[in-house]
Amino acid sequence: MEWNHMVLVTAYMLRFISNAKERKNQTPNCQTVVLTVNELQNARNVWLCYTKHNAFRSELNSLTKSKSVGSNSRMKRLNPLIDTVGLIRVGGRLDYLVASEKRRHPVVLPPRLPPKGKIVKMIFEQMHLKLLHIGPLLANIQY
Question: In the chain, at which end, N or C, are there fewer CB atoms within 10 A of the end residue's CB?
């Protein structure tokens, strides 16, 4: 399964759950038209948070408790932080960059090692095709 397809399926599943709750509460706000940008972003965040929980458990525990990772963590040099969605992002001197929040603080993804890296592999394969097979040095992938 490719990344875009997985995000679409997840977005429709999240919408189905939301609509089922709306019908249970008998409110008429059920959505049936095309997916919104927010729904697609929420679906991406579901998978990125799932990957984060599987790959960075110890770092996540450290960040939620003490706002920093342990000194033996490979992520220490990145000065990681947790954003409002719950994703681990790169911190540090990038705060002073005049750019969007996504560019200043990119999401930290785990290495592409199975089974934890399957989602990361799908993201990179999708971006590789989207950028017309551009090389890794020229690609600036933002999520």
Answer: N
